[in-house]
Write a structure and sequence with these properties.
mainly alpha, 18 helices, globular, Signal transduction protein, RNase_Y/CdgJ, HDOD
Length: about 375
């Protein structure tokens, strides 16, 4: 880390620059190590902040968390979900409130929409993997890029010049930061989480995972990185939806169908969770945007398949099967999203492309069978 990088970290941690956690948030963290905390104590603490209590109940009653009838009290929420789950959910709301929501002409709405999808993806992924506390994964996913707004908050206009934007990939942001500042926002994020005294498992969200270290990376780090890739695939222009399927299979053994379910759950559950977290999000718009991205990816991959198979050669059957698997994975996601928007105008183009895909696969399969 350069001298400038160290100075920037100290600048962020300096009094007045780093948002202070509320006294309730601090107590929520302390409760993690206190085995004697009771349901009534936790409920009483959260109820001291009526705004926090209201938003927590909205979150608990959202489609992502709902378990049966509507929950009308914090005490009931604790009884249903458990002490630790409610504590972590309340902490996630408090942390979101502590971070910048605007400034510098940057698209903070995109930052928070992406963060929310990352959080939901991490939570559902943790549950699918049988991790002991999916709610911790929700917080870890939410704060994975916590360093970005905190970094931008303390940079001068000259220092911030050339920042790629929230819509760019992690790689683009980190490359710019090291060239311009000598420190990246993940290094800064780790310093902030340590300063705030957040649990070590949440620090794993700040790891950048090169391929050479995947086998030794902690489960939470791998999960948050997967959630980051998936959320990037929704909104970053150059991010690849197909890459999500590849990483899901390599890291966790998930099929394309299982990965698609995680992606769909995030997109279809985000609206109610966003309302509880006070994040401005248009669920229908986001589903439509990802559907269109899936459609375009299918068009490009189908054209590539046809072009390569025309070249001939002994490996055509194997090449076709590989293309078919990739296309069916993308098609499965597109179908789920189109069903969610059933009757909406933006589904027509996707449905037409899916029909063309089915026809192309059937024709090529038949032609290859004749030549066999």
């Amino acid at each position: 880390m350069s001298d400038l990088g160290q100075q920037i970290i100290q600048r962020v941690l300096a009094k007045g620059n780093l948002p202070a956690l509320s006294t309730i948030a601090v107590r929520l963290m302390q409760m993690a190590a206190d085995d004697m905390v009771s349901v009534s104590e936790l409920a009483e603490l959260i109820s001291q902040d009526p705004g926090l209590a209201t938003r927590l109940l909205r979150l608990v009653n959202s489609v992502a968390y709902r378990r049966g009838d509507e929950v009308a009290s914090v005490q009931r929420a604790v009884a249903l979900l458990g002490l630790n789950e409610v504590r972590v959910l309340a902490l996630s709301v408090s942390l979101k409130d502590a971070l910048p929501a605007k400034g510098g002409g940057h698209d903070y709405n995109l930052f928070w929409r992406t963060s929310l999808h990352r959080a939901i993806l991490a939570r559902h992924g943790a549950a699918a993997l049988g991790m002991p506390n999916p709610e911790e994964a929700f917080v870890a996913g939410l704060i994975t890029e916590i360093g970005l707004p905190l970094l931008l908050r303390v940079l001068s206009p000259q220092e911030a010049e050339g920042f790629p934007g929230f819509e760019k990939s992690l790689r683009d942001q980190v490359v710019w930061a090291h060239r311009a500042l000598g420190v990246d926002h993940r290094q800064l994020g780790r310093a902030v989480l340590s300063f705030w005294g957040l649990p070590e498992v949440l620090h794993d969200s700040q790891r950048i995972i090169p391929p050479s270290t995947e086998s030794s990376a902690p489960p939470m780090a791998l999960l948050c990185d997967f959630a980051r890739r998936a959320a990037e695939s929704f909104f970053a222009p150059g991010a690849d939806l197909e890459d999500v399927h590849r990483v899901a299979k390599l890291r966790f053994g998930w099929s394309a169908e299982e990965a698609n379910q995680l992606l769909f759950d995030s997109l279809s559950q985000a609206g109610e969770v966003a309302e509880a977290m006070e994040i401005d999000l248009d669920q229908e718009h986001d589903i439509g945007a990802v559907l269109e991205k899936a459609r375009q990816t299918i068009i490009e991959l189908r054209a590539r398949m046809v072009g390569e198979l025309r070249l001939g050669g002994p490996g055509r059957q194997q090449a076709f099967l590989q293309f078919k698997s990739r296309l069916l994975g993308l098609g499965g996601l597109a179908r789920k999203l189109a069903e969610a928007l059933s009757g909406k105008e933006q589904t027509q183009a996707a449905e037409e492309e899916l029909l063309r895909l089915d026809q192309a696969l059937a024709q090529i399969e038949a032609a290859l069978a004749q030549r066999a």
